[in-house]
Specification:
Layout lengths: L1 H14 L5 H9 L3 H8 L3 H14 L2 H5 L25 H13 L2 E3 L1 H8 L8 E5 L4 H10 L3 E2 L9 H11 L10 E12 L4 H4 L15 E11 L3 H5 L9 E3 L3 E4 L2 H6 L2 E3 L1 E3 L8 H9 L3 E5 L5 E2 L14 E5 L2 H6 L6 H6 L13 E5 L14 E2 L1 E4 L6 E4 L27 E6 L1 H4 L1 E4 L1 E3 L8 E3 L2 H23 L12 H18 L4
Parallel strand pairs: 2-5, 8-10, 9-18, 11-14
Antiparallel strand pairs: 1-2, 3-4, 4-5, 6-7, 7-16, 10-12, 12-13, 15-17, 17-18, 19-20
Helix pairs in contact: 2-4, 3-4, 17-18
Amino acid sequence: MASRRAGGTEALFSERILYIELIYEPIFDDCSAATLLRIARTCRAARYAIAAYCRVAFNIDRLLSRFFPSPTPPCCSICHTRHEHSQIYDRARAFRSLQARTGTLISGSCALQFFDRTVYPESDLDLYVHMRDRREVGRWLIQEGYTFVPNVYQSRKFEEEVVHGMSQRTDGIYRMPGVAAILTFKKSVPAPTIPAILENEDTSDTSSQSAREHCELKVQIIVAKNTPMEVILGFHSTCVMNVISYEKAYCLFPQATLEERISLLMSSCRGRSRYRAPGVAKYHKRGFSMITAPSPDDVEPDPMSTDTPTSYPYRLVYIPSPSELSRTPHMDADADDAAAPQAPPTPPSGEDIFVFAPRVAPSSGFAHKPPFRLGWRWIDDSASWVFSLPLTGIAPPPPVNTSTPALTHDPVAVCNFELLYEGARRGAVMNFQVTAGKVLRYRYLVTDESLLAFLKSELSERACAEERKQAYELDDWTYYDEELPTLCRQFLHGLASRRLASLRV
């Protein structure tokens, strides 16, 4: 009888519920990302239902339309159905085309909202931009109706600040490593043009209706000295290490961020982000456990290292003091914390708490997967969750000149870093090396010394050929960024072949 009842329940779910959108959407809304993937593997009907749900729940155009609303209204004033109107995402897709041209990345709270399927109404949009593209991105925002809002250290005009502000300002004024400048833009819009916020609000509350009549949107351009990923890997903790390019979204620590709701406090090889307490307190209030030292079960050791990472038998969890939580601003402060100039450090209040907490296994009953993998990593490796975005209406990256082929990928696709754990004294550290070259238009992060030597050898030959070509004025200078992923794969395949050949059977 019990087996017959269980079989009937399975048949009800696979034959009836999975075909009714109004029923399975609330169910999937309460499922974690890993649970959605497991459901999709059960049967063909579940795979189709999950795919249809993901097209709505993980809609990057809808997320961006909050900051770049289209002037085209919906099909009618009372339309509340979850379908896409023909032109409602035009400006959001125009921004993604700008991303493709400039290599601009989205990170911080906005990227976390995309993966977590949630909305932080007070959050802003943080754009991480290459140095050469800061003017183009800023001008595009101004054309969209945004106004440049300088701080007390910046010029009043955007065109002056974007040129002279970079060269006149002393190095190290910002609190995050690798940041050259932070440019803030604001725009006042009517609340009905921000549907992402209103979906989760109670419209019957008359006291807040007047406050929602006009909302201020905020976009910040974080200009990187070398490459945007150098700044992102220097964040205060792992829960905000999520990146969205024009073509893909990357969550570097999905098990920790989306499943277990934990965040490991970090520093990079460029130094620790100063005054990170407001950001840590903010994400603690948003439900993340901030870990200073992981337990042995939290860490997957580096297979290339013989050293065993020293750690506590339990997680060491940092709990901000009540005074620190009360000082946290009710705004998205990821870039604001970096934008404020240096000041003399203040000693700890003594109220902050460090507690040991045993690891709670996920309730799904599946085998435990350590949330943090140590050692050599790539941005799109098996430890990351990579979500491909639809490219409908997105203009691909244009070629730099007639001799350079257009990129078929975003530059962030080549990003190699190393996660180290150096004990309780220094904690977790992101290690990487900035790579640049005459025949590379962008700068990249590469960690492995053997890979660096291989790329140097390959690119040096191309640089010599370009210099000979320039001596005779035969053609434009050719950049080889398009070949970089192929060169990296070639090195990795050769490395694997050599190691397999050295095995004794």
